[in-house]
């Protein structure tokens, strides 16, 4: 599409990632240049406004926001509403991750079978500590 042409799509990728992150953590507080604090939900639009103020082209920013919205819709909102996941991770990526053990290790399936005297190690999940306020 000629009017959407952009020779370098790095800016679009950044806007896409910022958009998806802002949808995942909408209530996080963001400080822009130490002057303005706003919720993360508004961060892509604030960055777009700053780019317009500074005279940058608006098309790559909008492409990133559209791509981020499409990705978020197809991976989060649509599966929640219908139960159908349209945009699945390709099987070859899952195989590479499993083969080279990239990312967090799989969870221990049978926690009751693990020795109670020996704590779980390297399960890939931070369990943390919980303290009741009434104790």
From TrEMBL:
<feature type="transmembrane region" description="Helical">
    <location>
        <begin position="6"/>
        <end position="22"/>
    </location>
</feature>
<dbReference type="Pfam" id="PF04511">
    <property type="entry name" value="DER1"/>
</dbReference>
<comment type="function">
    <text>May be involved in the degradation of misfolded endoplasmic reticulum (ER) luminal proteins.</text>
</comment>
<feature type="transmembrane region" description="Helical">
    <location>
        <begin position="34"/>
        <end position="56"/>
    </location>
</feature>
<keyword id="KW-0472">Membrane</keyword>
<keyword id="KW-1133">Transmembrane helix</keyword>
<protein>
    <recommendedName>
        <fullName>Derlin</fullName>
    </recommendedName>
</protein>
<dbReference type="GO" id="GO:0006950">
    <property type="term" value="P:response to stress"/>
</dbReference>
<keyword id="KW-0812">Transmembrane</keyword>
<comment type="similarity">
    <text>Belongs to the derlin family.</text>
</comment>
<dbReference type="InterPro" id="IPR035952">
    <property type="entry name" value="Rhomboid-like_sf"/>
</dbReference>
<keyword id="KW-0256">Endoplasmic reticulum</keyword>
<dbReference type="GO" id="GO:0005789">
    <property type="term" value="C:endoplasmic reticulum membrane"/>
</dbReference>
<comment type="function">
    <text>May be involved in the degradation process of specific misfolded endoplasmic reticulum (ER) luminal proteins.</text>
</comment>
<feature type="transmembrane region" description="Helical">
    <location>
        <begin position="62"/>
        <end position="81"/>
    </location>
</feature>
<dbReference type="InterPro" id="IPR007599">
    <property type="entry name" value="DER1"/>
</dbReference>
């Amino acid at each position: 599409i000629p009017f959407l042409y952009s020779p370098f799509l790095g800016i679009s990728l950044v806007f896409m990632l910022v958009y998806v992150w802002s949808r995942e953590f909408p209530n996080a507080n963001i400080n822009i240049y130490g002057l303005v604090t706003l919720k993360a939900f508004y961060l892509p639009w604030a960055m777009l406004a700053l780019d317009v103020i500074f005279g940058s082209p608006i098309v790559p920013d909008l492409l990133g926001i559209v791509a981020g919205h499409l990705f978020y819709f197809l991976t989060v909102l649509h599966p929640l509403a219908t139960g159908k996941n349209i945009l699945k991770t390709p099987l070859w990526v899952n195989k590479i991750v499993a083969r080279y053990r990239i990312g967090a290790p799989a969870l221990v399936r049978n926690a009751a079978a693990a020795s109670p005297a020996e704590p779980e190690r390297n399960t890939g999940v931070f369990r943390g500590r919980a303290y009741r306020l009434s104790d």
